[in-house]
Amino acid sequence: MCATCGCGDDGAAVITVVPQHDSHTEQHAHSHSEHQHTHDHDHDHGHQHDNEGPHDHQHGHGPGEHVHVPPTETITLEQKVLAKNDELAQGIRQRLAERSILALNLTSSPGSGKTTLLERTLRDLPEVPIAVIEGDQETLLDGERIRATGRPVVQVNTGAGCHLDAAMMGHALEALDPDPGTLLFVENVGNLVCPALFDLGEHAKVVVISVTEGTDKPLKYPHMFAAAALVLVNKIDLLPYVDFDLGKCCEYANSVNPGIELLPLSATTGAGLPAWYDWVFAQRSKLFSVLEDESPGA
Ligand code: MG
User: Among 9, 4, 6, 5, which Cα is nearest to 165's?
Assistant: First the structure.
């Protein structure tokens, strides 16, 4: 259940996308659906009433009866959901650090080109051990695209959920079991709202926008841009055909996250990609040097 929009993760499944020559797709459907059926009352009551929508009636105590829930209850619920998520995320971050794995959480609205960017990145960096966790509400389509590059991938289908959370990330990592030193990309569900709130234990969030979207995205979705460590502006090959102001977008992004860097690129033509790879390698070097400093012999 999402603390903000009330979306559910009923039926969320972690699916290992196996190599093409295998005859079946291994499903680890035990993950979220089982937890959901334990019926945690904490979440059921908070969001349904909060939405003030048609769902309210489902929990009414009589025909046409509205139940008023004070706003404080919603805030408490949200804090509880996020605190539990943060605790799980902290454990994941620790486990990733122990294995020298840099995890980057890619977020965007649907259609910004995250999967295309990943495909290109995986193909351009054959010498780097990379694994991917793919998040979508339904289908294995993106997982299959990543699999075609020959890299390990796990697909998480969130069902009604609009974001990945730390519990899903934990299950996906168990299924993926990346080698030490792996560079791990997580492609979140296409959504600029809820993924901003949910820490997956990643090293950094990278938000992708494309020039076919509005220049004002950073102002409209400030939480996402404030939570990100980098903004990738994709599809710059289309700049001559669209009304997108790169300078303004940079200004807006910096107004919600002072100092944040924007990298214009095209996953299709390859323009700007070296700067993206440099940024990734710099993050990796930083993580490795921090881990070295923290190691007992340092
Ligand atoms: Mg995708």
Answer: 9
If you measure from the C-alpha of residue 138 to the centroid of ligand 1, how many angstroms do you get, rounded to a whole number? 11
Is the residue at 5 inside a domain? no
Other Cβ atoms within 10 Å of 295 Cβ, number = 8
- Cα separation of 187 and 167, whole Å? 15
Kindly provide the residue ranges of all beta strands, DSSP E only, lying in 197-273, ordered along the sequence: 204-210, 230-234, 261-264
Q: Which domain holds residue 142?
A: 82-291
Residue in the structure block whose two tokens are 């107004």: 255
Give the C-alpha separation, 160 to 150, whole Å: 29
Beta-bridge partner residues of 107: 207
pLDDT of 71 reads 67
Q: How far is the CA of 32 from the centre of ligand 1 (A)?
A: 21
Where residue 235 sits, what CATH number does that domain have? 3.40.50.300
- Cα(111) to centroid(ligand 1), Å: 7
Distance 187 CA to ligand 1 centre (A): 7
Structural domains counted in the chain: 1
User: Which percentage of the chain shows pLDDT scores above 90?
Assistant: 69
Q: How far is the CA of 165 from the centre of ligand 1 (A)?
A: 17
Residue 30: per-residue pLDDT: 43
Reply yes or no on whether the pLDDT at 17 is more than 90: no
d(CA 160, CA 47): 14
CA of 112 to the centre of ligand 1 (A): 8
**Residue 118 Cα to ligand 1 middle (Å):** 9
